[in-house]
Amino acid sequence: MDWGWISRNLDLIGGRVLEHMALSGPPIVIGFLLSIPFGYWASRSRIVRSVLLVIGNIVYTIPAIALIVFVPVVLGLAILDPVNLVIALTLYAIALMIRSAADAFAAVPRDVAASATAMGYSGWQRFFAVELPLAGPILLAGVRVVSVSTVSLASVGALTGIENLGSFFTDAFQRQFLTEALVGIVAVLLVAGLFDLILTAIGRALMPWNRREPTRRLVVPELTTA
Amino acid sequence: MIEFRNVVKQFPDGTLAVEDFSLVLPSRRITVLVGSSGSGKTTLMRMINRMVDPSSGSVEIDGVDVATREPVELRRGIGYVMQNSGLMPHRTVLDNITTVPRLTGVPKADARRRALELMDVVGLERSLAERYPGQLSGGQQQRVGVARGLAVDPNILLMDEPFSAVDPIVRDELQQEVLRIQAELAKTIVFVSHDIDEAFLLGDEVVVLERGGRIVQQGAPAEILANPINEFVANFIGADRGKRRLAVSSAAQPDGDDRLLVDAGGYPVGLIAAPDGRLATSDATPKSRSVSNKTDQAGDA
After folding, report:
1. What are the E-state strand segments in B62-204?
2. How far apart are the CA of A208 and the nearest CA of chain B, in angstroms?
3. What CATH architecture does domain B2-237 belong to?
4. Residue boundaries of the structural domains of chain B
5. pTM greater than 0.80
6. ipTM of model
7. Which of A207, A226, B177, B287 suits A190 as a labelling partner, its CA being 20 to 30 A distant?
8. How far apart are CA B2 and CA B24, in angstroms?
């Protein structure tokens, strides 16, 4: 171990952390957003659900390296373009997120949805005001998994020459230099942890009723009328 | 006035939920559609606010066919209270009650003021306004549901088995609350229930349904109780089991002048007032208007 290496290379580490966040952030956000219509669709029909889940599983099974190499060929991008990695990670994110999204919308209580219709919500109003918020907790749980998975998977980009925290692993391997690998691992964990904190904070801010869930058991006595 | 004209409902899977249903529901009265599950009662009620459209026939509100009304706009003018309250768990009590007024563009401050008044009307402490439904008891949730149904001051209130999931004591309270509110506000209430005692208690008009939305008998509770039209109704109201045939018990009597009433099976069901203290056992008539029956608190008083 060469702990001095860390202090000598703070700029490099910082740069790669930012690069890694820039590469893994967009796939998480885009994958989340795109999986919502698919998930909603899947929650409406059992057939659609099975088909989408199978497709998702297949996509997720494609080896990362293969996907990162195939994307530029199919889309006509340069082989070293970081966008290749973003697209590949987005595909994985959707593949992983569809199941959560489908489950999230399926878990919206039917009587609440029916009562929203009875109140006079139009279809879109009902979706945004009732179904999306109520799907929120499961969507959040899903996107947290996607986030960790994406941050970890982004390292693979280094193998195809897209610089990020994964580059510490390739460097460490070539130079048989363990410190660098360790720095890479810790940095990936920190980025994943940071993303998770951000997602949890967003969830708490957007879903206050969910946050108060634990107080549920404090039973409020039934107040009888005078 | 709500009028069903030869309404038929066949669902896409082929189920014939309603065969041929015609009925006039008087304004400012409580009409209870009562029947077992599969009798089509909820389906019928949902035709009024177009959550279900009839396959043929029509439903009219004050002479206007609801099919000509835009569903979203129609529903905003009709109160709806459902089983398990159907409250939005992610909205506070106050936000739940103000849902429809806010949809129709009532300013927030006005809607909230009105919602607080409604909380008084349905017997909810105002201090609960900022709670979430999950923090309330089942009975309180149903009260919020009733308040939400009344929020736009609708002429028509649809109540779909609203009290079937709360315990009997709370249900009693809520039923009395409905009668009190109705005495005050005089809405046209369509109430769906599978509980005949609830139907007799709340209904000005009771419509007994069997499978396929067939009307077996309709009328005031007293008429149905006195003359069940056939075995089905007799069975449904419990008359065939002697539940409705009451007699003064010859056994133990309570202190004072009251007499203990028992049904044909000998089970105690209530007390009969005997103001002169000389009510002879043999004179007890089950149809007596002064019967106060535990299961039928319609209270002629």
Report:
1. 64-65, 78-82, 156-160, 188-193
2. 8
3. 3-Layer(aba) Sandwich (3.40)
4. 2-237, 242-293
5. no
6. 0.76
7. A207
8. 6
Q: Edge-to-edge strands of the sheet including B214-219?
A: B78-82, B156-160, B188-193, B30-34, B205-210, B214-219
pLDDT tens digits for B52-67? Answer: 999 999 999 999 999 9
Mean predicted confidence (pLDDT) in B32-37: 91
The span from the CA of A67 to the CA of A94, in Å, is 14
Contact flag A115-B100 (C-beta cutoff 8 Å): no
Helix%, strand%, coil% for chain B, nearest 5: 35, 25, 40
All domains in chain A, ordered by first residue: 3-206 (1.10.3720.10)
Nearest by CB to A222, from B100, B135, B170: name it: B170
Cα separations in angstroms, B5 against B2, B10, B26 = 10, 16, 14
B11: Cα separation from own chain's centroid: 26
Q: Report pLDDT digits (tens) over B142-191.
A: 999 999 999 988 999 999 999 888 888 888 988 998 999 999 999 999 99
Question: 3-class DSSP state for residue B261?
Answer: strand
DSSP type of residue B296: B
Of the pLDDT bands very low, low, confident and very high (cuts 50, 70, 90), residue B252 is low
- Say whether A225 and B177 touch across the interface (CB within 8 A): yes
